[in-house]
Amino acid sequence: MTTTDSEPSAWYVVGGWTHVRPGAACRVVLQGVEIALWRTQAGALHAWGNRCPHRGVRLSLGIVKGDRLACRYHGWHYDEGGRCRFMPAHPNLDPPATLAVAHYATQEQDEAIWVALGGAPAAPPLRLGTDRPAFCRSIHLSLGAEAAADMLARLTGAAPVAPGLMQVWPEIAGSDRAVTLAVQPIDETTTALHVFLDGGPDAAARLAAVRWTVDVRWRIGSETGVEA
Amino acid sequence: MTDRLDDFTKNQWVVIDDEDGLVRRAPFETSLFSLPIGVETGADGPRVHRLDTGEALPVLRRYGYVWSAVDVAPRPLFDIPEFDEGGRRFVPCGPVGVKTSALRVIENFLDIAHFPFVHPGVLGTEDETEVIPYRAEIRRDVDEVWAVDCGFFQPKAMAASSAGVHVDYRYRVAQPCSAVLYKSSPGRAGAFDLIGILARPLDETVSEVHAWMLMWDDTSSDESLLQFQQEIFLQDRIILENQIPHLLPLSAGMEIPTRADATSIAYRRWLKDHGVTWGTCDGVPEVAS
């Protein structure tokens, strides 16, 4: 499953902002497309096609050197625009401008990392709450996105509020608080769910929301018979 | 998947196991080009047969290994004269399972530029990353790929090395899934040690890899030689299993080589000239997880 040209580009949450720390790289999959997420040492976030154009090695294995990402295989350096700037096997050669990695639009908002596969959408990502939403936890489900949404609606009462987003008002630390569930379609049979709690910073409430999330995962696992 | 098997690949002897390893494992079931096979030892030596039809497959014992083939009359196995010279020590190492095409495994074996990054402190160092121009060629007379005049600085070129040295390399691809490397011996000035790699495709993207050493070294223990080789191979394996696609791309444009990749370029061209389809791809890279 991949996006087609005719489909308008849309933002998806692929993780909480702590998913990739400054100076780190990691791999995420959105709608069957592999993405290398990485941050410069200074913290700037990038979402690239997860393949070095040279010999195809996953760039999520790469090493961040300042504001560049170096491929693990032959140490080729890519700058923040995805352009190759250094090939260690030929230290005196200027890499051609065409030597570059595909990159995707990415945004950080409400403690979430957003990626769009088909070019930057005209509108910014939706808000995940009204009062300083906090990232709580991500879980993986062995279900397609639609089946996952149906299951969440049935088990938790969560209702869709926008494409890819659901909201539910469970009792969290003694009061009803808005919890937003961001659905990341990984592939046809796998979905990630990123959970955000609205209502401002509150460590106890955040911890309670994490417990609520783990409980949801356990209940879905019991229903589907799949140890998620 | 066996219908993707081209004639050139089908006509080759393929490694089953080293002699001792086979005796230890037999009887066992494995596969060869996606065909399930059974391996046993008999009074007359090792036997290999297809599990689906029961048909016996040819067996060859050479260079300390047992070989078989899916074709009843495979091309003669390549010649390694150094095996019959005497003096060097033979150490087989493996097998190691790798989830990628056997051709990707061979190509990685032919690669010099990755030493400083994948084998830092052993086969290379980030202080010396430049690949000095060398010569890669398809030798039509023997129908092999060769790379000569390769040189690289290596902090610990072999198990017996005590200090960093500039090492001279020569590479030879004798079959799609077998390659030999000749490198200057730390134990004997002017002489070459041999390191070989033999990959058996279990499937198009799953391989069993055997490495062997034939070297001038009377001092290292078998264990230290094995450990040296295994450490290097495990470092390579991480790269190999994270190379997308797992099938080796033969069409131009899918991957961008530089002059340092001359051996890989010649290897890919040689495979293409022979119409090799097994373990290769021709289209856009797979993007699925």
Give short descriptive properties of this protein.
heterodimer; A: 228 residues; alpha+beta; Rieske Iron-sulfur Protein; TATA-Binding Protein; six-stranded antiparallel beta sheet; five-stranded antiparallel beta sheet; elongated; B: 289 residues; N-terminal domain of TfIIb; Naphthalene 1,2-dioxygenase Alpha Subunit, Chain A, domain 1; seven-stranded antiparallel beta sheet; 16 strands; globular; disordered C terminus
Q: Could you tell me the mean pLDDT of chain A?
A: 93
Quantity of strands of chain B, as a count? 16
Greatest chain-chain contact: A-B, 28 and 28 residues
Which class of the largest domain in chain B in CATH terms?
Alpha Beta
CATH domain class of the largest domain in chain A: Mainly Beta
Strand share of the residues of chain A? 35-45%
**Helical segment tally of chain B?**
6
Radius of gyration of chain B: 19 Å
Count of beta strands of chain A: 17
Termini of chain A, distance in Å? 22 Å
| Residue runs with pLDDT of under 50 for 5 or more positions of chain B | 285-289
- Largest sheet entry of chain B: 7 strands, antiparallel
Q: What portion of residues of chain A is helical?
A: 10-25%
CATH architecture field of the largest domain in chain B: Alpha-Beta Complex
> What is the CATH architecture descriptor of the largest domain in chain A?
3-layer Sandwich
Fold-level CATH name of the largest domain in chain B: Naphthalene 1,2-dioxygenase Alpha Subunit, Chain A, domain 1
Q: Can you put this structure into words, describing what you see?
A:
- The complex is a heterodimer of chains A (228) and B (289).
- Chain A has 228 residues and is an alpha+beta fold.
- Chain A folds into two domains: 106 residues, 3-layer Sandwich (Rieske Iron-sulfur Protein), CATH 2.102.10; 91 residues, TATA-Binding Protein.
- Helices cover 15% and strands 37% of the residues of chain A.
- Chain A is built from two helices and 17 strands.
- Chain A is elongated, with a radius of gyration of 19 Å.
- The radius of gyration of chain B is 19 Å and the shape is globular.
- The C terminus of chain B is likely disordered.
- Chain B has two domains: 77 residues, Single Sheet (N-terminal domain of TfIIb), CATH 2.20.25; 197 residues, Naphthalene 1,2-dioxygenase Alpha Subunit, Chain A, domain 1 (Alpha-Beta Complex), CATH 3.90.380.10.
- Chain B has a seven-stranded antiparallel sheet. In chain B, strands 2-3-4-5 form a four-stranded antiparallel sheet.
- Chain B is an alpha+beta fold.
- Chain B has six helices and 16 strands.
- Chains A and B meet through loops of A and helix 4 of B.
